[in-house]
Amino acid sequence: DADVTQTPRNRITKTGKRIMLECSQTKGHDRMYWYRQDPGLGLRLIYYSFDVKDINKGEISDGYSVSRQAQAKFSLSLESAIPNQTALYFCATSGQASNQPQHFGDGTRLSIL
Amino acid sequence: GQQLNQSPQSMFIQEGEDVSMNCTSSSIFNTWLWYKQDPGEGPVLLIALYKAGELTSNGRLTAQFGITRKDSFLNISASIPSDVGIYFCAGQYSGGGKLIFGQGTELSVKP
Fold first, then answer.
1. Closest to B22 (Cα-Cα) out of B100, B88, B109, B84
2. Structure-derived torsion over alpha carbons of residues B64, B65, B67, B72, reported in degrees to the nearest 10
3. Does the distance separating the beta carbons of B96 and A94 come in below 8 Å?
């Protein structure tokens, strides 16, 4: 979905490095999410935000942090990357109403050596 | 953390065949969603279901929200090569927000 843009699309880095993944959206949605995808495990929620400055932990938040400084932007950071954080990362957005479906970006493939 | 049980994990079918996949959960959901993921892309919403018993179609795709609110199925009729991809179910609790995803069903279609 071109309305949800993730950067970078691919990143290879070393253990111990700090990494930031960016997500921006032009859909005007209040709610934003970060998921991680691993083979055979589907997508698992890392963090989510229902509004600017609102931050909530998801299922697997350990080792990650996020920042929501503007409605259109939600960034995910790995403070000290480790190899088992190698995965495909997706950002998603949704409207405020409880029945609004989530729309996903095209993902960031992150490899940690 | 909780996950949905999605089956089958993979399917290899002949073009023209019908496909069925399902998800079950120990929890009750308010909303069931079905997404498709193509290689190198993010999941794209196929069908959203909001009421127990609801049956909704989108072209050759049909999905149902189970009466118990703990399960859902997706059928694809007369499959074509572009149906290839990974299909995910996702459940959402009342109040909206975060989704719980199934493990995915990888579909391969032989021409």
1. B88
2. 80
3. yes
